TrEMBL record:
Its main location: cytoplasm. The keyword Cytoplasm applies. This is DH domain-containing protein. Residues 110-292 form the DH domain. The lineage of its organism: Eukaryota, Metazoa, Chordata, Craniata, Vertebrata. GO terms for cellular component: cytoplasm. Transmembrane segments: none annotated.
């Protein structure tokens, strides 16, 4: 009976809640009297009814607010609008009025647009260099967040580059006419572009500067300062390294801008020849900067190598001036390796940290490129390890793999390496094949340059005579001691004129009977050519 009575009370409360609404013509009662209806419910011990009453009371408080007035959130600081990452760019044609636009041809407008883009880019570069100095360098030095030596290593000599670009802007301003057009720009850039060689030291130091900046970001003070700058409107949501990398990205744009100006320059314009010369100058400057940067990057990673055994050291590593390719790969057991392909040596390493210093521990024996054998493996040819589950499953078939090894297996073990995707695998294969082809071409050219004509003639003569004598022995089927060629290093030995000569030279160390039996039977055509060659050789002797 008690349960039935409680159920009836609950039903009565729910029915009253439906009858609460009054016609809209009546006046709305004050909030206090309305909410008091919820208090008329007699307290009961049933938890469900108590929760229903609390919900009803909360709903009355929510309905008492005016529907047309939005709910106000607690007072908080208004969020500042997110600044754009790019500046608002303006075209040259937008600076002219309608009457001026009609006086220029379409080709001339495009030419002036390209010149205006060059000038506007110089202004933006100067602003960014000044910003990097005033908003980052000087405050961190004043607040002792970094030392002066560290800031010099990261920022370089930025002050020396600002006048360089200001000078170009001044010359362009002098060449600008009253109508806003630049008549001739070729001579200006031809005289100014060689001064960009000043960026060689800056670009060469970028790798070390980036590594130092990443290391200093571990300091909470540095991280907090850089984060505050990133959230400030002046940064345009760009971090510090983006500002430090702007000069390098600006350098690679000069050839594109000059080619665009040249494309819209008429053939009979005085700037035609000057712009072509300017493009050649900037390409030579960029090539020189790339060489210096490559040498600096190569030396940076060589200094980071750590050897476990003195036998791993190779003089060719210290003498390398260029790093062809490097990146993270996995070996057959699933270990992450950082592989470096220098011009003459392939080095496999493991990244380690020693006293907060990142370095690369040399893994196994480095492989000289001249002794390197490359194998392109198909997907599924090799199963990669690295997990307990993978040892018992057939689904983990390796993809994007290749193998490198010594020509002589006794010099070191082979390495099966895996990359992330097909694109990176093809890049590695191309770099390795190009390096092997370059070393082969260099060895051939060195052999030809070191060998004198007399040596080449004597080697050819001895090889031919030995071939003739060996051929006579084979024909007569009578073993006699074979006449071998003069002993010389294999690298200096020129290619023999006939296949029989090669067979004789390779078997000269064995006995005459074994060499005669091991040679394949010659055809009549080969015998006739050898006999005629022997007659010509005897005549020459």
């Amino acid at each position: 009976k008690r349960k039935r009575r409680e159920k009836d009370d609950a039903d009565a409360v729910s029915l009253c809640s439906f009858d609460f609404k009054e016609p809209c013509t009546k006046r709305v009662r004050p909030l206090g009297r309305v909410t008091s209806l919820a208090n008329l419910i007699s307290p009961v011990k049933n938890g469900a009814v108590r929760r229903f009453g609390q919900t009803l009371q909360a709903s009355f408080r929510g309905d008492a607010r005016s529907p047309g007035v939005p709910q106000q959130k607690p007072c908080s600081k208004a969020a500042a609008p997110t600044p754009p990452k790019r500046r608002n760019s303006t075209l040259w044609s937008e600076t002219l009025d309608v009457h001026q636009k009609g006086t220029f041809s379409t080709k001339e407008i495009k030419r002036q647009e390209a010149i205006f883009e060059l000038s506007r880019g110089e202004q933006d570069l100067i602003e960014d260099l000044n910003l990097a100095r005033k908003a980052y360098h000087d405050p961190m030095l004043k607040l002792s967040i970094m030392s002066e030596e560290e800031l010099t290593a990261i920022f370089g000599d930025l002050d020396a580059y600002i006048p360089l670009h200001e000078d170009l802007l001044a010359h362009l301003a002098k060449a600008t006419g009253t109508d806003g057009t630049v008549g001739q720009i070729g001579k200006i850039v031809v005289e100014w572009l060689p001064r960009l060689n000043a960026y060689r030291a800056y670009c060469s130091n970028q790798l070390a500067a980036k590594a130092l900046l990443d290391q200093k970001k571990q300091d909470p003070r540095v991280q907090d300062f850089l984060q505050r700058c990133l959230e400030s409107p002046f940064s345009r949501k760009l971090d510090l390294w983006s500002f430090l990398d702007i000069p390098r990205s600006r350098l690679v744009k000069y050839p594109l801008l000059l080619k665009e100006i040249l494309r819209h320059t008429p053939a009979d314009h005085p700037d035609k020849a000057s712009l072509e010369e300017a493009i050649s100058i900037i390409q030579a400057v960029l090539a020189d900067i790339n060489i210096k940067k490559g040498e600096s990057e190569c030396q940076y990673y060589i200094n980071k190598l750590e050897y476990l055994d003195d036998r791993q050291k190779d003089t060719r590593i210290e003498q390398c001036k260029s790093l062809l390719c490097h990146g993270e790969l996995r070996n057959k057991s699933g270990t992450k390796l950082h592989v470096f392909l220098f011009t003459e040596v392939l080095v496999l390493t493991r990244p380690v940290t020693r006293n907060d210093r990142h370095c690369f521990q040399v893994y196994r024996q480095p492989i000289p490129v001249q002794d390197l054998v490359l194998e392109d493996l198909q997907d599924g040819d090799v199963r990669m390890g690295g997990s307990f589950r993978g040892a018992f499953s057939n689904s983990d078939k390796a993809k994007n793999i290749f193998r490198v090894r010594f020509q002589d297996p006794s010099h070191g073990q082979s390495h099966t390496l895996q990359v992330n995707d097909v694109f990176h695998k093809q890049q590695w294969l191309n770099c390795l094949r190009n390096a092997m082809a370059t070393i082969k071409d260099l060895s051939i050219s060195e052999t030809e340059s070191s060998a004198t004509p007399a040596d080449v003639c004597s080697n050819r003569r001895s090889s031919t005579v030995s071939a003739i004598i060996h051929m006579e022995e084979t024909d007569e089927n009578c073993p006699r001691p074979a006449v071998s060629a003069p002993s010389s290093p294999s690298s200096e030995e020129p290619p023999s004129p006939t296949p029989s000569a090669t067979s004789t030279l390779s078997s000269s160390s064995s006995s005459s009977s074994i060499s005669a039996l091991s040679l394949p039977r010659k055809s009549k055509k080969d015998k006739r050519s050898l006999c005629s060659l022997g007659k010509r050789k005897e005549t020459m002797v």
